[in-house]
Specification:
The chain is an alpha+beta fold. Helix content is about 20%, strand content about 25%. The structure holds zinc ion (ZN). Zinc ion (ZN) binds near residues 43, 52 and 66.
Length: about 200
Amino acid sequence: MFKTTDRPPTDQTGHALTLRRAPAGQPILGLPTSTKLLGLNTHFCHGRTLPCQAPDCKACQESIPYRWHGYITYLDLKDRVHCLLELPAAATGNLVQWTDTHGSLRGSVIRISRQQKKSNGRVLSELKARTETDILLPPEPDLIKALCTLWRIPYTTATPANNRDIHPDNPTQRHLLAQQIAIAADEIDKLLNKPENPQ
Ligand SMILES: [Zn+2]
């Protein structure tokens, strides 16, 4: 069974949040909707990004390099789109410090730019307390769910509900998070190999 419509949907993104990276030129200005940063090692292999599944990771076995990336969700102040922000590790210090001091990124304004506005410039992150208090933020999205959607891997119930307690600075917890996403990644082949994909 599938549904048809006589016009395109207003929201074509489904469950996906728009992925944004630090732009050259005009900076990103946004309101974080995540409580805190979530990060993990990822590989770019076979044309797509996938979470590192160490110690049993096919990409690691193929010596494909991995990089740690930090993610938050935010409401973009320019186009009002709910986005997923990907940051290199070097640009995440201010976010960790802010959460440690204030308890949550929600309630702040974030500015993401590149040094000298160059496409290869160092990524800079700045946070300020929000002065307008009448902006209602959407509820905090499930970052793991957003990442699974982005990477087209199934989100499984194997992910514990307390995943917000996983802090990227803690290697054990980071590993646990990678494992959780890896469980989801294990199912991708099954899903793709189904002769009739219900989606
Ligand atoms: Zn790996």
